[in-house]
Write a structure and sequence with these properties.
Strand content: 35-45%
Bound molecules: zinc ion
CATH topology: Metal Binding Protein, Guanine Nucleotide Exchange Factor, Chain A
Radius of gyration: 14 Å
Distance between the termini: 21 Å
Number of helices: 1
CATH class: Mainly Beta
Helix content: under 10%
Largest sheet: 8 strands, mixed
Number of strands: 11
Strand order of the largest sheet: 6-7-8-9-4-3-10-11
Structural class: mainly beta
Shape: globular
């Protein structure tokens, strides 16, 4: 079981099973929502359970052409990721309290990263979006 919580502790979540991927997203939206970039944990939607604070989660649906919902705690502002996204969950790894058991494999949307941020590891780099599967 992988546990996660927001900064104020109102929102708690649990992930069962093995996540499918952990990656870094450098898109302009993740940059603004989560910092310089976002570490994103993805797995099967049924494996994610919101343990508490469902009523504290605000969800902002994106304006086209954007497709990624933003979910965050209305008490502390912690970015939670998209949470449910079709058949998958997309959780901001920044809220994890436990080790997800897998390591990042790729950088996504590298074309959108700010020039002042340099990637200095050997992970795969994708110019646009790519969901490992
Ligand atoms: Zn919170
Ligand atoms: Zn992103």
């Amino acid at each position: 079981m992988i546990r996660g919580s927001c900064l104020c502790g109102a929102v708690r979540l649990e992930i069962s099973g093995t996540p499918r991927s952990l990656s870094y997203c450098h898109c302009s939206r993740c940059r603004k929502a989560e910092g310089v970039f976002a570490a994103v944990l993805i797995g099967a939607a049924d494996d994610l359970r919101i343990v508490s604070g469902e009523d504290r989660i605000r969800r902002i649906e994106p304006e086209p052409p954007w497709t990624h919902r933003r979910a965050f705690c209305d008490g502390c502002g912690s970015a939670l990721g998209e949470l449910q996204s079709g058949a998958m969950y997309v959780v901001a790894a920044s809220v994890l309290d436990d080790d997800p058991g897998i390591r990042p494999t790729a950088h996504l949307n590298v074309e959108s990263k700010p020039d002042w941020y340099a990637i200095d590891d050997d992970l795969k780099k994708f110019p646009g979006n790519y969901v490992a599967g």
